[in-house]
Structure formats: structure tokens, C-alpha cells
Amino acid sequence: MRIGAIxxxxxxxxxxxxxxxxxxxxxxxxxxxxxxxxxxxVIQYFTDKEVGAIGVGSFGPIELHPESALYGYVTxxxxxxxxxxxxxxxxxxxxxxxxxxxxxxxxAAYGEVVWxxxxxxxxxxxxxxxxxxGVGVYAEGQLVHGLVHPxxxxxxxxxxxxxxxxxxxxxxxxxxxxxxxxxxxxxRWQQKGFExxxxxAAWEIEAYYIAQSITNAILxxxxxxxxxxxxxxxxxxxxxxxxxxxxxNLNGYVSAAEMNSYMEQYIVPPGLxxxxxxxxxxxxxxxxxxxAQESVSAQ
Amino acid sequence: MRIGAIxxxxxxxxxxxxxxxxxxxxxxxxxxxxxxxxxxxVIQYFTDKEVGAIGVGSFGPIELHPESALYGYVTxxxxxxxxxxxxxxxxxxxxxxxxxxxxxxxxAAYGEVVWxxxxxxxxxxxxxxxxxxGVGVYAEGQLVHGLVHPxxxxxxxxxxxxxxxxxxxxxxxxxxxxxxxxxxxxxRWQQKGFExxxxxAAWEIEAYYIAQSITNAILxxxxxxxxxxxxxxxxxxxxxxxxxxxxxNLNGYVSAAEMNSYMEQYIVPPGLxxxxxxxxxxxxxxxxxxxAQESVSAQ
Lengths: 299, 299
Hints:
- 2 copies of one chain form a homodimer.
- Chain A is of the alpha/beta class.
- The first copy, chain A, contains 10 helices and 10 strands.
- Chain A folds into 2 domains: 3-106 and 274-298, Nucleotidyltransferase, domain 5 (2-Layer Sandwich), CATH 3.30.420.40; 119-269, 2-Layer Sandwich (Nucleotidyltransferase, domain 5), CATH 3.30.420.
- In chain A, 36% of the residues lie in helices and 18% in strands.
- Chain A has a 5-stranded mixed beta sheet with strand order 3-2-1-4-5.
- In chain A, helix 1 runs parallel beside helix 2, helix 3 (104-115) packs across helix 10 (276-297) and helix 6 packs across helix 7.
- The mean pLDDT of chain A is 96.
- Chains A, B: One of its GO terms (molecular function) is fructokinase activity.
């Protein structure tokens, strides 16, 4: 059985097909343009692929509540053409199969739970730190939606004492995304992250903000694993700086070996590398397929 | 059927008995002393009450994982006699009934879900702001435990621009609890909270810290309701200040009517007043009773 997977990012889409063993057999990628163009390419890709289900991890905000009339929509985004776009509805008209549907970061968290660094755990956080910052939340064996869905990229953090950058978030100025996303690094230092030397002062400041948000997230949700992905986290010198800063922040308050002795196994890169989102979409599709099968056999 | 309920706080214990309809029929309260004394009083209270189950919401940190050898223990507390105290084990020797067991704040959150301000919802946060600060987390229909359990009272917040108080948390100095718990207010102003006029500058500062932690918690967990209890929240002038500050912080980013038009129904006092913790313990006991019944009838 083939399962379709769509990682629907704000800047690019990745469509793939995989199997029940969690192997991605093929995929393509294209830029995120107007939905007429982009969803057209998605439909073209899956035509004749005969997928048994499709999983989607999408940029947001999106509607996740199955009882909502807008379930499956991208909602209030400023991205041209995508506001109130019936993403799932358009796909369903072409491919009447079961769908998995969640945020891009929740999908990535789920992929890591099923096949990656959080395999077998009942909780984890998945951060993506790149063009923007997002956080997927998996708790007590379930992806967290709540009222809308988590938007942990926009938490407020204390300012680094040596940082007078004002932040670039149009909503919050100096929230986490406003201070630590890729465009913030570039605006602060007039260079892109990958152009800065690995011992540049930028990285200690970057780690400071990320670590503070992780500290607060640990205190609020007590995850079994914290996974850091996205383009900025390709700067692997950040990991030890972040772990050290989280440990400093917690100051021994949380009495758990993971926090005090095994931090290098607690705050980790994605087990699925840069494909956590696509694998996550596959896992969501596979789950939707199995749920549909169970629902049929229960009738 | 009578169900026992224990709200085991760090300064006082409340023991009660209630029924399946969620009515507390009687309760007593006594100070938290050495466990030999305090658990002795608990045992004395429940002797001859013939309860079918007991629910406990306890101060912590506590062990919540059923597979742990220390399940039911209070673990690393500095409170004399309570470190590694086998709380549930001691009770079980006297009353061999099903037990519900969770943190005091998770219990209160659960009480509010079953009979209070979050009735019927699948997610909420319960803050207690008093001698200390704690946060119970209920997400996707489950109390969140994770690696240990949430300790949301100790999140780091930005400093209020007019506040130079250094904070009193022995671990973190100026974390939320260090800046906003009752003893912090007293240390900052040399008066207890209830002695300060309702228009004192203290309350705007207090609301600033609480609102910041709520803002970040909303962004991280997207709760359907935020419930604020505890002694400090008896200062009802705080509610409008907190709601206004949360709205200011979010700045329209989360597109939900609850956040933008109905904030007074979103950030609310406990529906069960100061008894949320005791009702929560009753609800945990009742749940344990039902689970045991179901387990028996499934055999």
C-alpha cells in the first residue's frame, strides 16, 4: 500500500510517496506559490500514484477541529491566495481517500515519535528554527491542538544583555521568532547565519534565546525529548551552547537524570534529519489509513 | 458510594469525602507537618469512613509513572520528612482501595474540567498563585505528566520596567514564582498582598508577570480555558489587568474569538472557588473507582 505525504511549508512544498514500513520511495519539491499553481502541482504529482491515504503537515494557521466547517482549511495567513483556502477539500475532490491533517511542526514531531529521535516516547517537542520558528507539541501520546494549535515560535523571552537588536516580528517585535529566526540573524549581523564563523558571538546570543524558550517549555509541558530542527540548527555548534544554557536556567530544579546528566541525549537533532516533516506527513497518512480500515472492519 | 479526597498542600492538608455526583459531604483541614503526624491524621480521618476509592492531589515533586518503583512517592522536596516519602504506599496499607494520584495543580485542573469552569473542555490550564506558583496542564483530554510533571510556576519572564526587585526563588531568583508569589509581593512592598490597596502599583506589576507567563503558555499549549486560583487571585482587580496584558502581548496573533473578543470568559477564576483542589482529588478518586470497576467487569 502506498501512502501519500505532503509537507506544505510556507516557502516550499514537498510531496512524496511512502510505504507502511516508513520508507519514502520518491518525492518532489517545488516553491509555495498561489494555491492554484501549487495545489495544481500536488494534484498532478499524486495523479495515477494510487495512494491509499494522504497525510499533510501544513503551514498555518490551519483549522484542526473535525467538527468545524473550516476543517482542512488554511485560515488567516497573509500569504497571497491561501487565506481561507480549502486545502484538504480541494485534494479530496481529486483523491477520495482518508486524510491525516496537522500543522507542519506537529507532523514533524509525530514523524520523530514514529520513526525518529522520540521513537516510542509519549511526549516530545519539535522545534523548527529557520525562516520562522515553530514548535510541535506531542503530550501523553497525542498531538496537541487545543483551542487552535500551539504557536510556540512567538513566545516572549528576556533580552540577552549584550543584544540591542529590536526584533523583526511584525506582531511582537522581539519575541523568539523576532530575535532568533534566520531573517533576524541576518538583520542583526548583516550576514546570513551560514556566513558567520562558528565562533561568532551571534551563536551564543542565538542559543540564549532558544534555550530560554526551551527552559520554559520544559517547565510547562515536561517533555521526554526536545528535538531541534530547521535550517539554523544546521549550525551544530548551537547544540552544546543551548544544552548548557538550559541547564544553567533550570539550575537543578527539575530532578531528572535527563536534565542533569544526559542533556546531550535530551536536546537533540531530528532523528530523521531534514525529512522529519515529510516522514511526519507519511506517518499521519498511515495513521489515517489504519483508522479508516479499523472503522470499516468495526462496521 | 463514598469517595475519599485528599488535597495535600505544602502548608495544609484537606481531607474530605464526597459522592459520585460531585458533592463534598464533609471535610477537615490541618497543617502539613512531618508525615508521621500528618499522614497519621489522614488515616485517622478515613478510618471507618468506608470509602470505595481515594483521590490525592499532592504537593511535589511526586512520582507519577505507574511503572516506576517510586510511584506514589513524594520525591525530592526539602520539606522535613517528606523526601522520598511513600505517600500512597502508607495509605494503601490502611485502605486497600483504588487510588487516583496526581499533582495538586493537575488535580485542581481536573476538578475544573469535571465540575468547574472548564467543564466539558478537552484542554485547560489551572494556575495557583499563592505561597508558591504552580500550573496544572490538561491537554487533549488528559492530564499532562510527561517526563516528571509540569512545573510552570518557575518559568522565566521579562522584568517589569519599573521593578528592580531581585526575586526570591532559591533556584532561579526572578522566575515567575520568585517575582509573583505571595512572599515575593511581601518582600517587595514590605506588606502582605491583602494589606495593599487595590489601586496600588503592585497589582499592575503582578499582572505583568502573570500575564507574560500566560501568554507564553497559550502560545505553547493553546488551552481552551485559563483558570487562575490561589490566594493572590482573591485580589479580583488582577483579572482585568491580566486579561488586558495578555491581549496586549498576543497583539492579535492568535486568531480566535476567545482571545480577541471574549477574554473575560477565557481567563477566569475557578468555577469551584478555593475548593478546586479538593474537588479535583474527588474527581481523581472517582475516576480510579470507575476504572477499577471496568477492569473487574472486563475480566
